[in-house]
Amino acid sequence: MSSALPPPTCKANASSQAVKSAASLTLSYTPALNDGASGTVPLTHRRPVLSLLAADARVVAPAAPNIVSALIASGIRHRGTPCWAQIRCASLYVLVSALEVQVLLSAAVLWLALPGVALLPWLCLETALIWVLARALNREGHTFVHVADTTKGGFMSDQSVHWIVVGGMDVTQHQMRRTTLPRLAQLFGQDMQVFLPSRHGFPLDLVLVFFRRNLHIPTAQSTALAVRILAHNIGALDAAWVMSHLCADLPAGDSLRKLEVCTFGATTAEMTVPLGNHCDVSYPTVTHFAIEEDPFAQIGVFLGVRQRLEGRLAGGLFTIQDSPGAPTSRGILPQSRSYTLDGYLDVLFPDDDPLAGVLGHVCRIDREVSEMRAQSVGSRDRRTRRGSRGKRLSWTALGAVADSLSSGCGDHDEMAGAFSLSEVRRRDKALEGMKGYENNRLAEAVRARHQLRCCVEWDGAAVSHCQYLGC
Prior knowledge:
The protein has one domain. It has 17 helices and 9 strands. It has helices spanning 12-22, 35-38, 49-76, 84-113, 116-137, 174-188, 202-215, 235-249, 254-257, 295-298, 301-306, 341-348, 367-382, 395-405, 416-431, 441-457, 463-469, and strands at 25-30, 143-146, 163-166, 192-195, 228-232, 260-264, 285-291, 316-322, 364-365. It comes from Anthostomella pinea.
């Protein structure tokens, strides 16, 4: 007498806790700007650098305590038991950061009490000590390839697609190397080209982030990126630098269409794409994921979408928030959710399944922000455009020209502002009821691989169940 076959599951026990956590979250979506309106040049080419630095200082400086709190919480609430290498790496980072703070505070006090000649030897000694510790902190390679493990029943996905992971700021990179990268390789079934940032202690890292947000300073990571990019917090600065230079060198077309960028808690408030001068042009696919309480996203992607509208942040934004009735913790450390790349994967793809996480929820379309972005494009950029005879076009003239061009495509870049608001409203209304995994390239890649892996892992007796579930 044969026993009943239990329903097939894929790590059901491991995913139950993650699914329960996802149930307390909500998801909202801010659509991307229309093609004709999203292309522009970076703010660094249109505004003085000093004014950009002064405006950004008022954003980055107040966010520093929240960033410190998030980094500490991420280090405490990591997965598994910390090993000696992880403790050593975190201790070195904390020591370098403490020395830098000590130098800044002591130099300000000693400068008033000691002459410069007496202060210089002490300052050189402290700088040399920090340099030695920073070298020890960065002795591991920052650019390498993580090979997907196919020996445990896994398989490789489409080899024509190349994946790039750009790491972000963290107290230790050991978790990224030991757990996050193997998880990404298993999630997408691909080898991962990895670029991890150099670390110099929190004060200096924050200063570098501040300048790189406004000066587009290239790094070893940004000069080597190409094709498909996953960028975490400050790694989005490298991705934005690549986008601005790549789009300046290449016209919009099939080459740029193959570029896909996904950011997680992006620190950049600006990411540009080519100018929209034609109807049938292809642009890079850019998608941003951000947790509402993530301090890196608050000074980056949220700032670019909601406040700093004179710049351009290409791509759509998925905002992950707590449900209205969900309990929240108050204190020095943020709630148990982690803002590391591994933490984002826990929220988006628990058990490697996009349907089980927050992406399985219905998105609330942020129509107010979407319309506000479209209006800023029309009011600032398009109203200042000049007609063919050098005269500025009024809104009445814009409407007349738009009516004359409505039968064909033509070169209607002048009209993008006049069209954008009504088009945005129609598009946002059509998106109502959309789930997070729909029209989402990253979720599509994970979903297809998750379903196929479930079918491969089940034995022959469970094939009928797989077919019944539509895997």
